[in-house]
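[User]
If only I could read backbone structure tokens as easily as an amino acid sequence. I have put the entry right below:
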Amino acid sequence: MTAVSLVIVVTGAVVGRELWRDAHRSGLSEALETVPKSTLRLGYTDWAAVRRELGVPDEDRPTSEVVERFTNEAYDADLSAVSSIDEATAALQEHFGFSPMTAEWEAFAQSSEGATMVLRMPDDFDLDRVVERLEDLGFTEPSRSTGVWQGGIDLVAAIDPTITPELQYVAVLADEHLIVTSDKEDYAKEAAAVALGDSDSLGDIASTREVVAKVDDPAAAMVWSGDFACSDLAMSQADEDSQAQADAAVADAGGVSPLSGLVMAMAPDRALTVAELFKDSGQAKDNLRARAELAVGEAPGRGGRFSDDFELVSSRSDGSAVLLELRPREQTGFVLSALDSGPVLFATC
């Protein structure tokens, strides 16, 4: 084989791997590329998967009755737990022409600088209709097609009080099939630049990519970047007695190391995967037993035991991560939303 032929073969293999990766990339992984690198906490909802799980057909222009039924069923199944717009589904569809009923997925990203909501629309969705709606609603048109439509809190509140303030400023990115919104004009511009590929994204953080890669395509997920879970879910939010109880439980389990990233991912059937990232594979192995014990033990600051609500199906280390597979004991009720806010002892640092 000549040197030129070898280069062609190797190049072809690299391109093939990249094409395979892109073809098999999950919606959650794709969402990482659309939100700012400064994101600390990301809520992700695969609305297409939710509709499939609930047996709701995709419709370009769903009726109010269909939207309302879908919203209620998604809530009852806890499949809308991390959405920022689930309570305004009907209002969004009626006034803006898009909603969880028509979107593929939603990413709600929060940072110390601001918050943004990104909706990925189907390739064949007519985003010109959204532009027309924004104009009709009274939003101020930007100077370029990928710019930010300016609304403001008074305008959004007048449209419908159920609509989240994150809809005050809107960018419609037709080529990317994305709708980007924020409650701050400057942050909307920053978020739009990220979604266009012109600024760094959460996907540029290696540890966040690594921990997200540990979970399969979820219907809903929460992602904590870096060590943010250590403060967001911290036992310090509990009273002193609960903190003392937590310290004793951690000591009995053999101690734990700080997290470098955390994902709680819920499948359409409500099974929950918790991926906890550590500094290296050795630390993950050292934390496996303790993290598994804490996941089925007492839940100080919350009451009862985690095992009252979840069965630990499996626990294992995978590279630098500990993976906990949890299955809810009941077919109804809250799953992800029961754990996405602190204090959560098994996520303690």
User: Anything to note?
Assistant: Residues 137 and 345 are 46 Å apart (CA to CA). The chain has two domains: 38-202, 206-347. Residues 3-24 have pLDDT under 50 and may be disordered. The longest strand covers residues 310-318.
